């Protein structure tokens, strides 16, 4: 419990730091400029190009998430069927729950934050005013529809694989698992930035929040398996 509390506390501090940096600096806009083609007045990955690349960087990542979830579910179903759910099933349970709850909780938060995507903003020829994440919209601004872009949603499909950190016992395998999740998450994040779907802060926030959810899942699964083991004695 102590490790979980410390980890979550550090996570909260990091999330607050992301929001404060976004509020008091222009780092988001300065970085986002590298993804926008001012000469042609469009994002560097425009719709036609997205159709060609989405099979790898968009739908491909979602398919990988679904495939992994099916494998974990099949393994756990067989284990439960033969009444042998043990500690060695922990990696599959952690991975499955992370695949379910990381996107649900982190990406689901965008339905209450009311933040628009870069491509929707007037600074990039969109219709809506640029307003910082923790700031309010102008009083005379009438929203035709709420924003649905913060935290980054698609990236959570990759960041969910950070759960691999808790799926191995040896140190190098754990860090390799974490690196895999970070690589997949940032591959999706940068791709979405090239499309004008997110600012960098959206993805950094999602990364930290995703690992916080994974830490909680690891703790809960560990407690449940320990309790089950004591009950079966």
Structure keywords:
mainly alpha, 233 residues, two-stranded antiparallel ribbon, 62% helix, 2% strand
Give the % helix: 55-70%
How many runs of DSSP E, i.e. beta strands? 2
Q: What Rg do the Cα atoms give?
A: 20 Å
Our estimate of the beta-strand percent is under 5%
User: Count of DSSP helices?
Assistant: 9
Write the element-wise H/E pattern from the N-terminal end onward.
HHEEHHHHHHH
Major pleated sheet:
2 strands, antiparallel
Overall mean confidence score, pLDDT: 92
Stretches where pLDDT falls below 50 for ≥5 residues? Answer: none
Termini, distance in Å? Answer: 24 Å
Shape: globular
| SSE-based structural type | mainly alpha
Strand line-up across the major sheet:
1-2
Structure write-up:
By secondary structure, the protein is mainly α. The chain has nine helices and two strands, in the order H-H-E-E-H-H-H-H-H-H-H. A two-stranded antiparallel sheet has the order 1-2. A hairpin with a 4-residue loop joins strand 1 (36-37) and strand 2 (42-43). Helix 1 runs antiparallel to helix 9, helix 4 (59-81) packs across helix 5 (90-106) and helix 5 runs antiparallel to helix 9. The longest helix is centred in the last third of the chain and has 33 residues, at 200-232. It starts with a helix and ends with a helix. The mean pLDDT is 92.
Task: Briefly say what this structure is.
The protein is mainly alpha-helical and 233 residues long.
């Amino acid at each position: 419990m102590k490790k979980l509390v410390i980890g979550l506390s550090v996570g909260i501090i990091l999330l607050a730091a992301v929001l404060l940096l976004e509020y008091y600096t222009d780092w988001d806009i300065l970085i986002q400029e590298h993804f926008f083609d001012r000469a042609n007045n469009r994002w560097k990955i425009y719709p036609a190009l997205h159709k060609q690349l989405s099979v790898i960087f968009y739908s491909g990542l979602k398919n990988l998430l679904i495939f992994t979830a099916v494998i974990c579910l099949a393994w756990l179903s067989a284990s439960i069927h033969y009444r042998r759910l043990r500690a060695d099933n922990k990696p599959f349970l952690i991975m499955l729950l992370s695949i379910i709850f990381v996107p649900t909780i982190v990406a689901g938060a965008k339905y209450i934050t009311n933040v628009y995507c870069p491509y929707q903003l007037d600074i990039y020829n969109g219709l809506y005013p640029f307003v910082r994440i923790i700031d309010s919209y102008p009083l005379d601004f009438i929203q035709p529809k709420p924003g649905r872009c913060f935290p980054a949603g698609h990236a959570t499909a990759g960041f969910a694989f950070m759960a691999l950190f808790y799926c191995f016992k040896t140190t190098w395998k754990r860090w390799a698992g974490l690196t895999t999740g970070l690589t997949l998450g940032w591959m999706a994040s940068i791709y979405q930035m090239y499309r004008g779907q997110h600012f960098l802060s959206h993805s950094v926030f999602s990364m930290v929040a995703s690992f916080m959810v994974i830490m909680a899942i690891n703790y809960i699964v560990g407690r449940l398996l320990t309790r089950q083991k004591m009950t079966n004695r």
